[in-house]
Amino acid sequence: MNQVLQKQGNEKLLIIMMLTITLSSMSILLFNFVLPQISKEFQLTNSQVSWVTSSYTLLYGIGTAIYGKLADRYKLKNLLVFGLLLFAIASLLGFFSTSYWLLLVARCIQAAGAATIPATATLIPIRYFPLEKRGTAMGTVFIGTALGSALGPIVSSLVVSVVDWRWLFCIPLLLLLTLPLYFKYLGDEEGTNTSIDWLGGGLLALTTTQILLGVTNNVLWFIGGIVALVLFIYRINIAKSPFIQPQLFKNKVYISYLLLAFFVTGIGYSLFFLTPLFLADVQNLPVNMIGLAMVPAAAVTALLNRQGGKISDSKGTSTLFFIASSLLIVCFFLLSTFINSNAVLIAIFLIIGNVGQSFMMIVMSKSISLTLPSEHSGIGMGLLMMQNFIAGSIAIGIYGKAVDVEGNSSWNPFNQLVMGATFSNVFFVLFALHVIILIVYSLSRRIRSH
After folding, report:
1. Are residues 230 and 256 in the same domain?
2. Looking at the structure, do residues 174 and 69 belong to the same domain, yes or no?
3. Cβ-based neighbour number of residue 287 at 10 Å
C-alpha cells in the first residue's frame, strides 16, 4: 500500500515539476518581446537593453552547475524552496522597478533563484524513479520546456497588449502555489556530508562568464576565460574537497556524452534562433504569424515527449537516439530544400525537428545520468545543464554571423533558388553535421560492443 502511495506521489511530483519548468522556460523568453518598449522607456541603446535577457541567461546557466553541486550536499526540497522564494522576491522587485539598473538587478536575482529549477528537474527522475522508468520521467519533465517555449511569446504579447510590460514579472509568482506541494512530495534525504569549495565554484563561474562574453562581445574575453580555466583546473587538483572531483573528468563515457550533448544542443538552437528570422526575411510573415507558425511544433513535442521517454525505457537510449537523429536529419534537409515553401509546410518541418531535438535531450540526459555515481549526480547533471547554455550561446553567435553573410548560391543541389540561399546553406550544413554525428555514434557503439 505504501509503495502504491509513494508511486502516486512521485507521479504528482513529476507533474508539478513539469508545470514549474513551463513557467521557468516562459520567464527566459517573456522579456525578449518587450525589449523595444524597455529601451524606449529608459532611453537605452540596443547593447544596454540586451543585458535584460543576456544577464538572465548567463546567471541561469552558471547557477545550474552551482545548484547541482549543492544538491549533492543539501536536501533538494530546501534548495528548490530557496530558489523559488528568491525568484518570487526578485519578480516583485522587478514589478516595482523604476530604473534600468533596478530592472537589471531584479532580472539577475530572478536568474539566481530560477537556476534551481533545471538543476532539480534533472535530479528528480534520477532520485525518485527506478532506472526502468527514468526515461519516461525525464520525458514528462521536459514537456515543460516545450510548453514554455510555445506559451512564452503568446503570453508576452497578450499581456503587453493590455497592461504595462512590468506585469510580466507577476507570472513567475504563480510558482509560489507549488511550494506546499513540494513540501509534501519531496523527501528529506540528505546528500554527502562534505564541504563546498566556493573558490573552485567561483573560478568555474568566472570561466563560464568570460567564455560567454567572448562569444557575445569581444574575443579578448576568451583570454581571461582560459586563465580562469587553468586556475580552476589547478584548484580542483589541490583542494581537499574540490567543487568538482577530478575523477569525474576521467570518466570517459561521461565526457564523450557531454561533448555529444554540446554539439547536438548547439545545432538544436538553430530551430529556435533561425526560425523567426527566416520566417520574417524569406516568408515575409508578420510577427504574430511567426509565433503561430512555431506553436504547433512546441505543442506536438509536448504531446510526444513522454512517449519518447517510454521508448528509451523499453527499447533503450540507442533506439531513441536513432529516431531523434533521423527526425533531425529529415528536418534540416527539408528546411534547406524547401526554404521558400509556404508557412504550413515549414510548420510541419519544424514539428519534425522539434520532436527530434526534444527526444535527443531525453537521450542525452538519461545516458549521462547512467554514467554518474550517486555522489556525483548533482554536479554531473548540473554541468550538463550549464554546458547546454554555453553551447546555445556560442551557436547563436555563429548563426548570427552566418546569416549576415549574403548567399549568392545554394549549396543544396536540390534547391538552386537564390532567395533564402543563406538560410538554406546553414540548414544544409546542419543536415550534414547530423549525418556525421549519426555515423560517429553508430561506429562508437560498434567499437564498444566488440
Report:
1. no
2. yes
3. 12
In a shared domain, residues 260 and 396: yes
Q: Are residues 51 and 90 in the same domain?
A: yes
Q: Are residues 324 and 359 in the same domain?
A: yes
Query: DSSP assignment, residue 189?
Result: -
Amino acid in position 231: L
Amino acid type, 68: G
Instruction: Please determine, for residue 101, whether its predicted confidence score (pLDDT) is greater than 50.
Output: yes
Query: Using an 8 Å Cβ cutoff, are 263 and 244 in contact?
Result: no
Q: What is the mean pLDDT of the chain?
A: 85
For residues 278-296, average pLDDT: 76
Residues 189 and 215 in one domain: no
Is 182 in the same domain as 92?
A: yes
pLDDT of 448 higher than 80:
no
Residues 115 and 137 in one domain: yes
C-alpha cell at 447: 567499437
DSSP string, 352-413: HHHHHHHHHHHHHHHHHHHTS-GGGHHHHHHHHHHHHHHHHHHHHHHHHHHHHSPPSS-S-T
Binned at pLDDT 50, 70 and 90, residue 4 comes out as very low
The model's pTM is: 0.85
